[in-house]
Amino acid sequence: MSLKGNAIIGQSGGPTIVINASLVGAIQAAWDIDEIDRFFGAVHGMDGVLNEDLCDLFREDPDTVEAIKLVPSAGLGTCRLKPKDKDLERAMEVFKAHDIRYFFYIGGDDSQLACHRVSELAKSSDWEMRVIGIPKTIDNNLVVTDCSPGFGSAARYAATCCQAVGRDAEAFGNLEVVEIMGRNEGWLTGATSAARPTPEAPPHLVYLPEVKVTREQLIDDVKAKYDELGYCVIAVSEGFAFEGEDRVTSSSQVDEFGHSRLGGVAQWLSDVVEEGTGVRSRHDKLGNLQRCFSATASQVDLDQAYAVGQKAVYWAVEGQTDIMVTIERENDDPYQWECGATSLMTVAGASKAVPREWINETGNDVTEEFVTYCKPLLTGRACELDTGFSSFPKFRLHRIDCKLCAYERE
Amino acid sequence: MSLKGNAIIGQSGGPTIVINASLVGAIQAAWDIDEIDRFFGAVHGMDGVLNEDLCDLFREDPDTVEAIKLVPSAGLGTCRLKPKDKDLERAMEVFKAHDIRYFFYIGGDDSQLACHRVSELAKSSDWEMRVIGIPKTIDNNLVVTDCSPGFGSAARYAATCCQAVGRDAEAFGNLEVVEIMGRNEGWLTGATSAARPTPEAPPHLVYLPEVKVTREQLIDDVKAKYDELGYCVIAVSEGFAFEGEDRVTSSSQVDEFGHSRLGGVAQWLSDVVEEGTGVRSRHDKLGNLQRCFSATASQVDLDQAYAVGQKAVYWAVEGQTDIMVTIERENDDPYQWECGATSLMTVAGASKAVPREWINETGNDVTEEFVTYCKPLLTGRACELDTGFSSFPKFRLHRIDCKLCAYERE
Q1: For a disulfide at B15, which of A170, A327, B73, B242, Cβ 3.0-4.6 Å?
Q2: How far apart are CA B305 and CA B327, in angstroms?
Q3: Fold of A151-293
Q4: A182 touches chain B (CB under 8 A)
């Protein structure tokens, strides 16, 4: 089963707060493995593979590698590339040219699909290769795995923000709409409710894309909470839309240059609830910070991200291939987990919504099942980097000489 | 000089991360002062005064009071009320009815003006009273004082955010526009540059409302930085507009002080730079979190906020009135400061812009003078509240019986 050669790893899609922990887990695991001769980093993921933009990860300073574990966002750079057939063939050429026998790819469902296609192509090209996907997405929508590394820290930031803006909204006696990432799945939005320290704490209403509510119901919900508490925080996913209404971005709200002034769901829904209730409403969109604000990261998430990177390398060397490393839950409370594996085919291009029974009947909160599932994933504050003042450590990215001609994507 | 009676304190305008530290400083100072018989909190600031919505702060649990020092946003509630003559007369009636001889008001320049008017009216009404303003604003635009409590923590959050989204932008090789609070003054925006750990760290360009640049210059600036670094983070104040181009805000969007509710600069400017450079640009608006995200608060800011509240009480009892407590800088490095005082008239309704010489000639960064001024104010991480999971302690707000008829504002 022993396969000696070089390895390559890349990061793909939207970065997360802990995606570098997976990378560092893989690098540190590979240090002591004889089968892996050289370990290349693909700069900007699959783009780096196609362009032969590779760096030598074993030439990075070990202290820097250790420190980068706590640095948010993809240290090797990332990309949003869905490789076509020609791209995959080019990737195989690059792998062969550099004697790459191990391919690790850190990403979401699209990246796992890319991984699976690489694996299939390697088999049909008669190039012995081990291909392992490493899970990552703040959306938490990967199937089979208990959770996706990156989710817990994004959720912890979003929950912290909801608690904070709740204080601001309460001081004014206002409404506040918070927009949270998630086009089709409401895991992150639901997590802000699951993390509430008390039933009265914000957010008081959460709307997930999985269950639509009518405009009338939402306004009634807000009125009732406002009457009870004197303020109300409403958390919604960016994919929010009312039952029976297509979301319209008003063309009348443009500035003098003709640019839309609509700030997305938060601003739009804030206007809707202000008009519907007569109470002043403000709004915040948590935006890209959900992928990179490390000062409130989750320790459990960081540990899991590291473990899936480490296990990918160990298991590849042991002979496994065409799998994605998963998290398996052993127990809810105290939370116990270990790494498992699933075939890439089962996760490639698939996504997991919040189960209907984990959202309450009226569709404005999550249930106890969601809380039991979610709360452990946000446990512990991981990161003590004083990010306003300390410089983030960076890879030196020692480039490898190209062996092929330049590549033009279609 | 001894004046015995009751005291009242209120919080006004946009809350800050450390505004409760000023309140707690005042309460804890008053505990041991014989001249202050009862200490009332005005619920929702001047609104609470006018409506006689008062609570007894000496009945709050001392441990809770201590804990609230670290809780963001106004614990007594806030308001955005510019009192009219009739309102001020009503306030005097309330003060007389409750034997209030000490009035403390925590707020920005509008609130200091309200304070000054109360002080004048007390004199002309022959009601002996000590009136002291306590400075607060994330905008840092109060005159005379070295800085405004609330600024350092907002700046620290904004700087942390710029560092974080910089990682995300670098991973993609994108542009990123970050919108920071500040209608007319660029203190907060400038602070994100001042806090940079290295010259290459984000934000790479900052545009303050004090100096306008042309559309062409800004796009050239962005192109140059992008060519140098492979990504670029641009921080702008919400009041940003190009030289020679007025940005129009919808006249319907104004707050209770008549200030326009600005928004959408990030999205608009992001479109402009993407179009002008051909590089993908994304954007984030830091929004209300700048007033309430406590996990990255500044220790210096927290200490100063506490001190100005404490000194207000001490100095009022010693006989001072019609003043605002200030921060006086003794030394830059190591930063040394103490509290001072200035007449309310000098600060009322006045505002301090960033000096022209603290912004570089081309208007895209701050100078070393700004850095020397600003950096100490962001020093130290103050708050270890695990805000995603811990409940924020709250006042019990024991209400006082009303002694007057209900009041209707004009």
Answers
A1: B73
A2: 10
A3: Rossmann fold (3.40.50)
A4: no
